[in-house]
Predict the structure.
Amino acid sequence: MEERQYDLIFICRPDTPEADIDKVIATLESTATEKGAKIESVAKWGRKRMAYRVQKLHEGYFVYMVIKTTHGEVVKELERRLKVADPVIKYLTVRLDEELKRQEKLKRHRERRAARRPRKAVTAPAAPVAPSAPPTEQSAPTA
Amino acid sequence: MAEENAPQQQSHGPSSGGMRSSGPGGGGPGGPGGGRPGGPAKRGKRNFVRKKKVCRFCVDKADFIDYKKAEILAPFIQERGKILPRRMTGTCSRHQRWLTVAIKRAQNIALLPFAAEL
């Protein structure tokens, strides 16, 4: 199975100490590595205001991580862990590899087109300049 | 008044038929009625030039709309949290499709509201 990439975001209660958040991250990392997944990056976005109230809280501590794996079941396990973790109030996993692949494809396509365009641009102005001058002269006397 | 009404009856008689003949009995209704056929061509439609809306993501050559950047998505939702239609924002169909997905993801992780807070 090909490798998949997931985005995993979870929100902790704003009053949880940093140590507890680190603990949650550590458990996620250990379960991920156990199941053969690789955590590419972890970013703490810190305390942010949420767009709506979650469990009567307006703020949350956001943590964002990127996971790469060939086994999709890892996500299930990670989400289970997040569900039972006390400080976590909300989480979201998004599969992104297909969109990133599409992005790559479009980018390649654009670069190819950009590479081709200059040649066209060079030939295009050169062609009209030479023939355009004689026809106008010829057409005027005949008319 | 009589001079004004007379040519109108002549000119519009064949087109509007018998219905018109009762109108010119009163001079008042005949006057504005006479102005109507000529009006629309000259000043009926207010011809203002609508500015062509351009897809913002096409301008930026966006291949991917990131759901994590709420500040990019925010202009495309209403105050109440609804996603704005394409005809309002000028987004092209492809980018609108990506945009809706991105907005819905952002809503799920509380980066954007589902509805306005009370």
Notes: The interface with chain B takes residues 7, 9, 11, 50-54, 60, 64, 90-92, 94, 99-100, 102-103, 106-107, 110 of chain A (CB under 8 Å). The longest helix of chain A spans residues 97-142. The beta strands of chain A are 4-12, 38-54, 57-69, 88-95. DSSP finds three helices and four strands in chain A.
